[in-house]
Write a structure and sequence with these properties.
Length: 331
């Protein structure tokens, strides 16, 4: 099957077929190989893209900027102080204006409806760099990383530990269902994803020969897993007061060496970053002073251990974002 994604938006993986996702993963690997070999690939010379950031990020911004420059494009970064979107100018009008000036637009921010509105009115491809509900560019990077380390995607046992209600839990469940990985969300029941999305993913998973499971038992979640994945316990934009409540309920789901020992011997650990695995950050120090904890969602032993592939995963953000932009913007 020939895959043509020219002119498409990239808002959530629910919008993409397994064949289209497969194409993006393969294209990412191809562009990564070119980068490693020092082979120029300025395929989008002369194009311009805008990066709209309402939430800051190290990996997402750097990935889009480096990928854009590698492809020969000029990149304009707009943080909240650099744009009037939603303040003096509506999202619709901002989309219309930017769509006349740029060939593609990235948005990283809050509700999914914002990036969907940008896509509706811009007239050029719009890419979701993260919303509260979905994080599709991270998913292509995660799939590429798993395949690099495990050799395939189909049949992989994947467990996500922690708060599975928001962008990472939602997106990983969709990605696994689409690509044939057996997905388990492991966390307190009140932090499971919305039932409508679970039902949708179960239908998709059945078509692709895999399963969707939910459990509150961390040892059950870790048993026989190929991939153990977690994320920070309090998301960007949530109040500081959420830490006390979240720490209290999430402590049993910390990815420790004990949980890693219950997984397959060659299991890998993944994390989308940033991670609170020590006290070398301002927030890490603050958490230690308030709660006496030097590690949160993952122990430092696991994070820096031989089964951790978090920095391969972080690098792959750039290669996979490059693939998404190239596929949707190529002539």
């Amino acid at each position: 099957m020939s895959v043509d994604l020219r002119g498409r938006n990239f808002l959530k993986l629910l919008d993409y077929t397994p064949e289209e996702i497969r194409y993006l993963v393969d294209l990412s690997a191809e562009l990564k190989a070119k980068k490693k070999a020092g082979e120029p690939h300025r395929y989008l010379e002369g194009k311009n893209i805008a990066l709209l950031f309402e939430k800051t990020s190290t990996r997402t911004r750097c990935s889009f900027e480096v990928a854009g420059h590698d492809l020969g494009m000029d990149v304009t970064y707009l943080d909240p102080s650099g744009s009037q979107m939603g303040n003096k100018e509506s999202i619709e009008d901002t989309a219309r204006v930017l769509g006349r000036m740029f060939d593609g637009i990235e948005y990283r921010g809050f509700d999914q409806s914002i990036v969907e509105t940008l896509a509706e009115y811009a007239g050029v491809p719009v890419w979701n760099g993260l919303t509260d509900q979905f994080h599709p560019t991270q998913m292509i990077a995660d799939l590429l990383t798993i395949e690099e380390h495990k050799g395939s995607l189909k049949g992989i046992n994947f467990t996500y530990f922690g708060d599975a209600r928001f962008n990472m839990g939602n997106s990983l469940m969709v990605a696994c269902a689409k690509m044939g990985l057996n997905y388990t969300a492991c966390g307190p029941k009140e932090y499971w994803p919305e039932q409508d999305l679970v039902d949708t993913c179960k239908e998709i998973a059945e078509e692709n020969g895999c399963t969707i499971c939910l459990t509150e038992d961390p040892e059950e979640g870790a048993k026989n897993a190929d991939v153990l994945y977690t994320d920070i316990w309090v998301s960007m934009g949530e109040p500081a007061e959420a830490w006390a409540e979240r720490i209290n309920v999430m402590k049993p789901y910390q990815v420790s060496q004990h949980l890693m020992s219950l997984a397959k011997p060659d299991a890998i650990f993944m994390h989308c970053l940033p991670s609170f695995h020590d006290t070398k950050t301002t927030i890490g120090k603050d958490i230690f002073e308030k709660f006496g904890l030097s590690e949160l969602e993952v122990t430092d032993e696991v994070f820096n251990g031989p089964q951790s592939v978090v920095f391969d995963e972080a690098e792959n953000r750039m290669h996979t974002i490059k693939a998404v932009m190239y596929a949707t913007l190529m002539a």
